[in-house]
Amino acid sequence: MMEKNKLAKIKILKNGPYLVTGNVPLAERIIVPKGKMYEYKNGREFPQAEEYALCRCGQAKNAPFCDGSHEKVGFIGEEKASRETFEDRADMFEGPALNLLDDNRCALARFCHRKDGNVWELTEYSDNPNYRAEAIIAASECPAGRLVAYDKTGKPIEPKYEPAIDILQDSEKEVSGPIFVKGAIPIESSDGFTYEIRNRVTLCRCGKSRNSPFCDATHISIKFLDKGKE
């Protein structure tokens, strides 16, 4: 698996798709409510390949794959996101037994909500072992990587992910969600810059994010449905 880590890569093509190389597994996952919380269910099965291109403009008729629609619609895929590191961007919320870093890059996936409260409330009362454990889950299940729990030694607490990509759908909001990139896959900008390598990020695929290439939850406000779901 270490070899796959070295090979896996996402290259953002100028005004075009995300080119994925390195035999990265691709799946569809559907966000569904479970009481006051959320979970994933399996969606469509996709063909697996050593290399594939994922739509970034939101117009492909063969979503999630690119079909050249970006050229037909004149898609402008300007990358606007900050290139600072997560720790430099994030605000810290200090709890008694846990700290939480929050960089506000929200995909509105809502996994930060748990049965006993949201991740900020749970961090505030993390001297309670149950709330501490729930806060860690709430932070770790955030696909955007907006939220990271840190222990009091300053060590981040992260789930163990192998390199993989999930195409998200949101059943409750009735929209198609972002591209969930897991397992420290390098993402290279169209100008050659490599973004900070992270365990969890979400990439925009509706074509309308104001923080591209990353998701900013615009897919919800515009009620984005990929062509594979219409």
From TrEMBL:
GO molecular function: 2 iron, 2 sulfur cluster binding; metal ion binding
SMART domains (alphabetical): ZnF_CDGSH
Domain of life per record: Bacteria
Entry-linked InterPro entries: CISD, Divergent_4Fe-4S_mono-cluster, FeS-contain_CDGSH-typ, MitoNEET_CISD, UCP009180
Iron-binding zinc finger CDGSH type domain mapped to chain residues: 39-76, 188-225
Gene Ontology cellular-component annotations: cytoplasm
Keywords associated with the record: 2Fe-2S, Iron, Iron-sulfur, Metal-binding
Protein name: Zinc finger CDGSH type family protein
